Amino acid sequence: VDNAVQNTLRLLETVGRTDIPVFRGCGQSIIAPTMERENYYGCDGFGDLEYETPVDSTGLQEEHAVNAWHKFALKYPKQISLILIGPLTNYAICSTMYSDFNQNLKDIYAMGGNWRGRGNVTKSGEFNF
Length: 129
Fold this sequence. Notes:
3 helices, alpha/beta, 4 strands, two-stranded parallel ribbon
């Protein structure tokens, strides 16, 4: 989660959108221990690039991502498309804690799985699910 937060802040800084708030989410899975992942994109998830300046963390909010998601869904009903590109822990907790969360979203997209039905044959073979 720390890498994801730092990389998000760095990306927003790079594209000149530090006005977009960043919320830290869950760092642990709900049931199983967090699955060890290989460093596909370096130790930091961004190819271990070296930066001249430290990341600007002024956009990082104190509020937890789960609560922020719910707040935004209520503030902008049927206007938010949730794009889930990592483990689904934040989504699972938000939809469990707030029964009105899903009905206030426009769309939900999740990255994971495969379309041929092969591969990912172990119980934890799919990182996102």
